[in-house]
Amino acid sequence: MKPKLALYWASSCGGCEIAVVDIEEKILDVADFFDIVFWPCVMDFKYKDVEAMPDGDITICLFNGAIRTSENEYLAKLLRAKSKVLVAFGSCAQEGCIPGLANFYDKNSIFEFVYKNSPSVDEQSKGIYPVPITHMPEGEIEIPEFWNTVKTLDQVVEVDYYIPGCPPQSFQILNAVGAVIDILKNGKPLPPKGTVLGAGDKTCCDECPRERKEKKIKRFYRPQEIIPDPNECLLDQGIMCVGPATRSGCDALCVKANIGCRGCYGAPPNVTDQGAKMVAALSSVIDAQTPEEARKIMETLADPLGTFYRFSMASSILKRVQPKTRPDSSGK
Amino acid sequence: MSTTKEKSWSPRIVAFLCNWCTYTGADLAGVSRLKSSPSVRVIRTMCSGRVDPTFVLKAFKLGADGVMIGGCHIGDCHYSEGNFKTLRRVEMLKILLDQYGIDPRRLRLEWISASEGDKYAHTTLDFEQQLRELGPLQLTE
Question: What is the pLDDT of residues A238-293, one digit of tens each?
C-alpha cells in the first residue's frame, strides 16, 4: 500500500500550493509514490472524508497557512490526529507570515475597517459584520469564527517538522520530498522532531554573493530612492535587508535581484525573535554616537516593526501589538 | 482590580547591569546603605553590549513592568565600544516598543559608574516611581 499524503491550506495565499506544483514533472513521481488523500486546492475532497479516516492514517501532511479562524484551527487539530507526521509547510504555518501582520491590529479594528470604513464598502452594507451563525428562513448558516490573534501551526498543535519560506523554494521542496521518499522507501530513521527541512543552518548573508565592507549606515533608502550597486552589500548601501536575521536556504534569491532580503525563511537557528536579532545586527552597522543620531537614522526607515517582523510577528516573543481596546469576550 | 490589590502592587524591574560599572555601582549603593528600589531584580552581564534585544522583549513577556540597562559612561566602556552598541540598540528598541503599543519609558538606559552608588540608588527609585505611574504592564496574546 502506498504511503498517504495530505496537503492543506489554512490562512494562506495559495503560493505554497503553486510552489508544490512548481516542482514540475517531479510532481508525477510524488503522485506515483504517494496516495494523495486530501488536497482541497487541487482535487475534490471533503472534510468528512478526513473525519472518516482512522487516527494516524495519513503518513505525512504538509500543512500551509496560519491559524486565523476556527475552521483553520479545527482542520489543524483534525489533521494532527489523522497524520503520523505533520509538517508546517511555508512561512505562514511556521511563523505567521503576512497573515500574521494582522496581529498589528485586533479583531474589532480589522472588522471596523473591512466591513465599515474601507472605501470599497458600499453604503448599504456598511457596518454589517459577519457573525458565526445566521438564522435564515431556510435554516441556520454557519461560517467560521475569526480569532483575535493569528497563530502559527505549532501554537495550536504539535508539529513534527518545518519547511520555511514564502513560499518554500521548489528545489528545497524537492530536496525535502526526496528525503522523505528515501526515508520511507529504505526504512531510514526520521530526523529528530522539530527539524527544519529544506533550508540551511546559517543566515542569508552566508549565501549572498555581494561584497561586504565595514558598514557605516548614515540613512536608509527606500527602493525607489536609489539605484543599488549590484556587487556591494545592500545593507552597506543603506538598503534595508533582513538577511543577517534570516535563515539561509533560498540561495539568496532576492538579494541576487537587487532587492533586500525580506526575511521569509524566518529566524536562523538558535534565534527566538527575528526582529530582536535584526535590532542587534543593525546596532553594529548604523553610524550613530548618540541616541539622537540613532533615532534620526531609524526615522529614515518606514515602519521598523513591520519590516523586521514582516514574516514572524505571530511567532515573535510578544506575538502581537498591544491592542488599544481590549478584545471582546468572544474573541480568542 | 480592587483597591487593596492596587495598593499592594509594586512594579517588577529587571535590571541588566554591566559587570565593570553599574553592577559595582549597585554594590556600592548597598555597602553605603543607600536606599535603592527593592523592585529591582539585577542580572549581571559582562557588558551592557551583551544585552541582546531578545532579553529585553523576553523580560517584558515574562512579567517585567520595566527593564533597566546599566552600563559604563560613554568613553569608559571596559571593552571600549560595547556601550555604543547598547545606546543604538536601546534607541531602536524604544521605537519598536512604541510600535508594539508598550510605553517606551518602560525601558531605561542609564550610565552609572562604579563610584556612583548614589546615582544607582536614586535612578532605581525614580524608575520605580515612574512605573507606578504607568501601572502594570498587561500583555494580551
Answer: 999 999 999 999 999 999 999 999 999 999 999 999 999 999 999 989 999 999 99
CA of B65 to nearest chain A CA: how many angstroms apart? 14
Residues of chain B found within 8 Å of residue A286, distances taken between Cβ atoms: 88
Q: How far apart are CA A323 and CA A99, in angstroms?
A: 17
- Residues from chain A that touch B95, judged by Cβ atoms under 8 A, are 295, 298, 304-305
Which pTM does this prediction carry? 0.92
- Domain span at residue A294 reads 204-315
Average pLDDT (A210-232) is: 91
A81, A169, B130 from A189: Cα distances, Å: 21, 25, 57
Is the domain of A131 the same as that of A220?
no
- Cα(A140)–Cα(A145) distance, integer angstroms: 15
Interface of A with B (CB under 8 A): 149, 271-273, 275-277, 279-280, 282-284, 286, 288-291, 294-295, 298, 303-306, 308, 316-324, 326-327
CATH of B10-133, one of 1.10.510.10, 3.40.50.300, 3.40.50.720, 3.40.50.960: 3.40.50.960
